[in-house]
Amino acid sequence: MINTFFDMVVLHSGCLSNMRGRASGRVPNSIELLPNPAEGLARVGGQCNLTGMENVSEELRFLIERHSRGGSTTTAIPRVGLLRAERTTEPTAGMTELVICVVLQGAKAITCGENILHYGAGSYFVASVEVPVFGRISEASRQKPFLGVGFSFDARNIADLLIEMPDVRDPEFLCGLGVSPSDPQLEEAFLRMMRLFDRPNEISVMAPMIEREILFRLLQGPQGAKLRQIAQIDGRQSQVRRALAWIRENFTESFKVEDLARMTGMSVSVFHRHFKAATTMTPIQYQKRFRLHEARRLLLETPGDATRIAFAVGYESASQFSREYGRLFGLPPARDASRLRAKTIAPVTSGDPMMR
């Protein structure tokens, strides 16, 4: 499947109210993984006294610079990953994961459906649904690289924490993607987590406790409803995620919205409203977008006849597939795949720990 994490869609709690602009329809290429120029910091970092840093954000940036290995970095701390890039990138296709990402420097632009969202330093984003997106780093340079730290959610840990917290009445229709300004308590918790990079023997004991604090801060914050929905098996968004999972697992098959609604225990009208609120797409649009992303992955990984791949992902018409592929990615299938393979950057299956 498509491998993403840092290319999260992040919409404000109003979901579409925070978006600016429209997708251009021409969204090529994949994210470039870059070498890490901070090796000097890595060599001396163990002896550095970070208490002299002016603030929490500065120390977080320093630790990302020290411990990232260029592009994306999977760390020794479970579910924690880093991203560093020192130039802007073209859009890359991917699938959001259940995640929070705190951006410390630089900015990104994300396309979800027909909408574009921009977000940057001093904010965090949350995704509580899996949707196909395009993302690009829109602000980065050698002097001020893009820096971020991400953390994927474990629904069981959220559920355990909710048992000890008071019940909260959440909005009926909830967007599964959101962004909010960072707050000092949340950044301080992330900083304590990242300091464990230099104390690996403490990770097994301390990381779960810090994770609990991070989740607690998020649950109390403006995006808390999204985390509660992840943990609530009978919640509306969890029911929508059940339908999303079915579509992804059976993406070559046709379906009726009535059957998906029945699967989730909702009426057709209620299901449609919740699905659109959570993903910004209709179920048919979601399936079509997922099919096209999967087709692109197949074209990159196993170059071959575009017609064969069109049928493999569920299309019955090769000409329709070519038209819709070109509308989404900017070029016909064969030309798009050839252009991407000619580049030296990694394709969408780059193994970014922030993306799935």
Query: Beta-sheet strand percentage?
Result: 15-25%
Tally of alpha and pi helices: 13
Count every beta strand, where a strand is a DSSP E run of 2 or more residues: 10
Q: Summarize the amount of helix as a percent range.
A: 40-55%
- Largest sheet, described in full? 6 strands, antiparallel
Mean pLDDT across the residues is 82
Spans of 5+ residues with little confidence (pLDDT < 50)? 1-53, 344-355
Short description:
The protein is an alpha+beta fold and 356 residues long. It is built from 13 helices and ten strands.
Structure, explained:
By secondary structure, this protein is α+β, with helices and mostly antiparallel strands. 41% of the residues lie in helices and 16% in strands. It has helices spanning 39-44, 56-67, 155-162, 184-195, 203-220, 224-231, 236-249, 257-264, 268-279, 283-301, 306-312, 318-329, 333-342, and strands spanning 71-74, 80-85, 92-95, 99-105, 107-112, 115-120, 123-127, 132-139, 146-152, 177-181. A hairpin with a 5-residue loop joins strand 1 and strand 2. Helix 3 crosses helix 6 (224-231) and helix 4 packs antiparallel against helix 5 (203-220). The longest helix is centred in the last third of the chain and has 19 residues, at 283-301. It is globular, with a radius of gyration of 20 Å. It starts with 38 loop residues before the first helix and ends in a 14-residue tail after the last helix. Residues 1-53 and 344-355 have low confidence and may be disordered.
